[in-house]
Write a structure and sequence with these properties.
This is Cytochrome P450. Its cofactor is heme. Belongs to the cytochrome P450 family. InterPro entries: Cyt_P450, Cyt_P450_CS, Cyt_P450_E_grp-I, Cyt_P450_sf, Cytochrome_P450_Monoox. There is one protein chain. The protein is an alpha+beta fold and about 500 residues long. It has a single domain, classed as Cytochrome P450 (Cytochrome p450). It has a four-stranded mixed beta sheet, with helices on both faces. Strand 8 and strand 9 form a beta hairpin. Helix 8 runs parallel beside helix 19, helix 10 crosses helix 12 and helix 15 crosses helix 17. The chain starts with a helix and ends with a strand. Bound molecules: protoporphyrin IX containing FE and 2-acetamido-2-deoxy-beta-D-glucopyranose (2 copies). The site of one 2-acetamido-2-deoxy-beta-D-glucopyranose has 2 residues, from helix 8.
Length: about 500
């Protein structure tokens, strides 16, 4: 009895020593980081037990909790993977521009079951090839062409808001809108789908997000187990299947259309055509579908959430809303909003940038170091993950005076030189930044301008500290936010 107990203890010690031996270089590095060994690391589970300690079931609230008690930078372990968490713009600059730091951190593996073959997760040469290919879908000639589509959709939104007035869940409401606006503009797919089906794809994308939250913080739960045995997982599997069928149907239509028309190229190819082209080489249909789903997903809740936060913040800051209104009336007046107007809507753009500063919809980035990376004051060993908390970079008082104040004037042209490089990274930065930055900004700008021109927005929230945030891939408030629209009397 006693002997077997000794044996067990001995084995555990040996296992731990082996773990320490194998991870010696990471432990040594972690020791040099200011907040070093505060959380003991355990083999297999790393430091994921602190999500239990802190009661935070998601990345953003965990980061906020650690920031409050320890500050940046700090160490975490995701299973056996060492992660260095930073909010220093100088380090951000090195990481995002380093050619040996373009691959995603193991933290993203949880999403492999949906996005494995898509541009967001592919690695090295495959990524370089895809990036070069899909950049063509974001040329400025295509963007110019899409502004009309965005404007058209924003008019439908204005009509809809006249009767809705107070969306029950402003986030979901805006997400749906973004799915529809972008699906038509960027993939061309929704022309072949009924509005019901487009809505369904939108809902599927949004529901999957909700359901996989629990997957991210628990490294020991494999997606396969989750998808096959857990009720929530089974639901995800079913929804993924449905979404796939719909996308397959849209792709079928498109293929036929392309066969009939030999020359459909006017302003360049839309994203779906690019996905199909890519399929000719080395993507089977399933891989095309993953690619389409990624674009649909990258273009829906990111832009949708940004719109929702913008509306709420404008509702909370009436003077700022009036300035947007005045600008829109001066630049556009009552006519249609066109691509020529966009560069002149400077204050409107500043409002969107400031919203994204306070609420970066994707709050963290994670990269894998494929060689030792010199961060200036320290050399982070090969095999570690670098995690950038966009959220904390953008609220750092060192770079943003009075960081919790909603002050769009920070982004006015005359003030932009004061902004520290790499302290505003809501669209990421460097080699693997957001491909849809210009599209996203344009769509949001057109929509905000058109909505503010037609409505007064109101919200009862007093300060942004009231919002409890939660994140999976993207960040949302935990509770519904108050946001109301009442028709403006035209001057
Ligand atoms: C407000 C809107 C948006 C925000 C805040 C945003 C933000 C981001 C961020 C932070 C990343 C980096 C993710 C990472 O490294 O883990 C990213 C990547 C990406 N985004 Fe966006 N995005 C937005 C809209 C869009 C739109 C409209 C599209 C396309 C139609 C798009 C397509 C992509 C793609 C393809 C990537 C992956 C690029 C690569 O890995 O090479 N995004 N986005
Ligand atoms: C938007 O486009 C559709 C189809 O081209 C058209 O029927 C509709 O009238 C347009 N809506 C607005 C508000 O321009
Ligand atoms: C930005 O510039 C304006 C003047 O154009 C000034 O009033 C404002 O205080 C500046 N804001 C910041 C944050 O620098």
């Amino acid at each position: 009895m006693i002997i077997s107990l000794y044996l067990i203890v001995f084995c555990m010690c040996a296992f731990y020593l082996h773990f320490v031996y194998r991870n010696w270089q990471y432990l040594k590095f972690a020791w040099q980081v200011k907040n070093g060994f505060w959380y003991p690391v355990l083999p297999l589970v790393g430091t994921s037990y602190i999500s239990l300690l802190s009661g935070s079931k998601n990345i953003i609230s965990l980061m906020q909790w650690i920031d409050k008690i320890k500050g940046f930078p700090f160490n975490l372990w995701y299973g056996d993977t060492y992660m260095y968490i930073t909010k220093d713009p100088k380090e951000v600059k090195t990481i995002v521009n380093h050619p040996k730091c373009v691959n995603k951190a193991p933290l993203y593996d949880k999403f492999r079951f949906i996005f494995e073959h898509s541009i967001i997760l592919v690695q090295d040469e495959t990524w370089r090839k895809q990036r070069k290919h899909f950049v063509m879908g974001f040329k400025s000639s295509i963007l110019k062409n899409n502004i009309y589509i965005y404007y058209n959709h924003s008019c439908q939104l204005v009509e809809d808001l006249k009767s809705v007035k107070m969306p029950k869940d402003i986030f979901r409401y805006c997400d749906r809108y973004a799915v529809q606006s972008f699906f038509l503009g960027n993939t061309g797919i929704s022309q072949y789908l009924s509005s019901n089906e487009v809505e369904k794809v939108g809902d599927v994308i949004l529901d999957i997000q909700d359901l996989i939250k629990s997957l991210v913080v628990t490294p020991f739960l494999s997606p396969k187990l989750f998808l096959t045995y857990f009720p929530a997982g089974k639901k995800v599997t079913k929804m993924l299947q449905e979404a796939k069928e719909i996308v397959r149907y849209g792709i079928g239509h498109k293929k036929n259309l392309l066969k009939e028309q030999s020359e459909y190229l006017e302003n360049g190819k839309d994203l779906l055509e690019l996905c199909l082209d890519y399929g000719k080489d080395d993507l089977d249909d399933n891989k095309i579908i993953q690619q389409v789903e990624l674009f649909a997903s990258a273009a829906s809740d990111t832009a949708g959430h940004t719109l929702a936060f913008t509306f709420v913040l404008l509702g909370m800051h009436q003077e700022i809303q009036e300035k947007v209104y005045e600008e829109v009336m001066e630049v556009v007046g009552d006519k249609d909003i066109t691509h020529q107007d966009l560069p002149n809507l400077k204050y409107t753009e500043a409002v969107i940038c400031e919203t994204l500063r306070l609420f970066p919809i994707i709050p963290t980035l994670g990269r894998r170091c494929d060689e030792d990376i010199n961060l200036g004051t320290k050399i982070i060993p090969k095999g570690s993950s670098c995690i950038i908390s966009i959220f904390h970079v953008q609220r750092d008082p060192k770079y943003w005076p009075d960081p919790l104040k909603f002050d769009p004037s920070r982004f006015l042209p005359e003030n932009q030189s004061k902004i520290n490089q790499f302290s505003w990274i809501g669209f990421s930065a460097g080699l693997r930044d957001c491909l849809g930055k210009a599209q996203g900004l344009a769509m949001i700008k057109v929509t905000v301008a058109n909505v503010v021109r037609n409505f007064k927005i109101a919200s009862d929230h007093k300060s942004i500290e009231e919002f409890t945030l939660t994140s999976c891939l993207t960040m949302t408030p935990k509770e519904n936010l108050d946001c109301r629209f009442s028709a403006r009397e035209k001057l």
